[in-house]
Amino acid sequence: QPKRKAAFGSVGRRIPHRVLHVINQDGESLGHMHRAEALRLMDQHGLKLVLLRENVEPPVYRLMTGQQIHEEQLKRAEKKKLSPKPGTCTKELSFSSAIAKNDLETKTKQIALWIEKKHHVKVTIRQAK
């Protein structure tokens, strides 16, 4: 069973990797170091370690303050809100520019229903021959 991706935040003292690439709170690279050295730095400066990238060798961790972690969580939540949701459905409707009045009214009612159901609607109008 694969592990679920954890939310962005402090990893505390549970670091599964032996060698880490550490970045300080100002964004400067401190290079590769053993996890004990990273924990010592964390305690010394009163900071928290946050995993940035796990899929690289060695994994990248950053020393951050609680305020920096909070701000980053807010940024990520805002970005997630703006991204399209996977369950969102797009409906497409096309009709000719020479459409009859009744047909146009029927299609506008259908569009209104889709909008009420929070679907994205794309309307295409073709030029009549």
TrEMBL record:
The record, for InterPro entries, names: T_IF-3_C_sf (IPR036788), T_IF-3_N_sf (IPR036787), Translation_initiation_fac_3 (IPR001288), Translation_initiation_fac_3_N (IPR019814)
SUPFAM superfamilies recorded for this chain?
A: Translation initiation factor IF3, C-terminal domain, Translation initiation factor IF3, N-terminal domain
Entry keywords, A to Z: Initiation factor, Protein biosynthesis
Q: Name one GO biological process term.
A: mitochondrial translational initiation
Q: Where is the Translation initiation factor 3 N-terminal domain?
A: 11-78
Q: Which GO terms describe its cellular component?
A: mitochondrion
Gene3D superfamilies given in the database record: Translation initiation factor 3 (IF-3), C-terminal domain, Translation initiation factor 3 (IF-3), N-terminal domain
GO MF term set: ribosome binding; translation initiation factor activity
Indicate the family of this protein: Belongs to the IF-3 family.
Name of the protein in its database record: IF3M factor
Write the lineage as a comma-separated list.
Answer: Eukaryota, Metazoa, Chordata, Craniata, Vertebrata
